[in-house]
Amino acid sequence: MDAVNAGSATSRLPASDTVLVDVIRQMDAVYADLIRYEVDLEGKNAALEQAQQFIGSIITSMSDILLVCDQQGLIQQINPALLALTDFSSEDLLNQPLTALFLEDDAKTLRPSEVLRDHEARLRRKDGGFTELVALNCTPRLERQRHLPGLVIVGRPVGELRRAYESLNLAHNDLKRTQQQLIQAEKMASLGRLVAGVAHELNNPISFIFGNVHTLARYRERLSHYFDAVHGGLTGEPLECLRREQRIDALMDDLGPLIDGTLEGAMRVTEIVKNLRRLSFVNAADRQAVNLAQIIRNAVHWVVKASRRPILLEENLPESLML
């Protein structure tokens, strides 16, 4: 109803007033558009400023040096790490050619159209001297449509890289020493288990020999007593009584098994020692053919002896494997 009345009222206005009202309406619409565009522009400017602050904080926080130049080799941007290394200020370097920082040969090497990796160079200092060697990586700076507006150079003093490498090398050596210690500890533990197995294996024949020798020592005393009586001229019934008392006949029957058992125990000890010598490889200079199958059997034998748990083995080795 109001719009109809307003339209009716406008239609009743003179022509000049009608034109003025239309102009005011157009100005209001344009002003509203301007306000909207301004709000959008302020939002985009805020986002752009935030992005610039973010990029700036990253560049400022970099410990590596950063340098950006244009297609003609003029310096456009640098970071605080480079300024701290060379003692230059931003005003000293911005819009200056690369020769302000590099020797001419190095500046020619840094081309915007080429990628350069691990190029070592010295940077000029403000006092006229040069920095230590710096390892540089250079890449073209690309924009839209693959346009090449310049070059980005990133680097780090070689001394830092060498110190980092030395620290890494020291850590690696410590790791190797620790590994060797662990291997040595494992070897000692294995040796301990092997020695325990050998001691157990040697204990049986040695105990057998020890017992037989004690028995033979007692037999020697009885035989000495009997032979002393014989050499002393004792004969007849007294000698026979002494023979029965000393049980000479049973003693003589027992001597053979005792001596055989002692020899068998000694042979077992000899065989054990021989097997251990085969495993030791003490003298590497003496080269001779060996039976690898027998060595494997000996090694398996000692492993089984040293094990605390029963081990079920299935052997599939030839009788002889000479190498």
From the alpha carbons, calculate the radius of gyration and give it in angstroms: 52 Å
Instruction: Give the total of beta strands.
Output: 5
Helix content: 55-70%
Q: In terms of structural class, how would the helical and strand content be classed?
A: alpha+beta
Number of helices: 9
Q: How is the main sheet built?
A: 5 strands, antiparallel
- Uncertain ranges: 1-10
Strand order of the largest sheet: 2-1-5-4-3
Query: In one word, what is the shape?
Result: rod-shaped
Strand content: 5-15%
Notes on the structure:
This protein is of the alpha+beta class. It has helices at residues 2-12, 15-61, 80-86, 90-93, 104-109, 158-231, 236-245, 248-280, 292-306; strands at 65-70, 75-78, 116-121, 134-141, 150-157. It has a 5-stranded antiparallel sheet. Strand 1 (65-70) and strand 2 (75-78) form a beta hairpin. Helix 6 (158-231) runs antiparallel to helix 8 (248-280). Mean pLDDT is 80; it is low at 1-10.
How would you sum up this structure in a few lines?
The chain is an alpha+beta fold and 323 residues long. It is built from nine helices and five strands, in the order H-H-E-E-H-H-H-E-E-E-H-H-H-H.
List keywords for this structure.
323 residues; alpha+beta; 5-stranded antiparallel β-sheet; 9 helices; rod-shaped; disordered N terminus
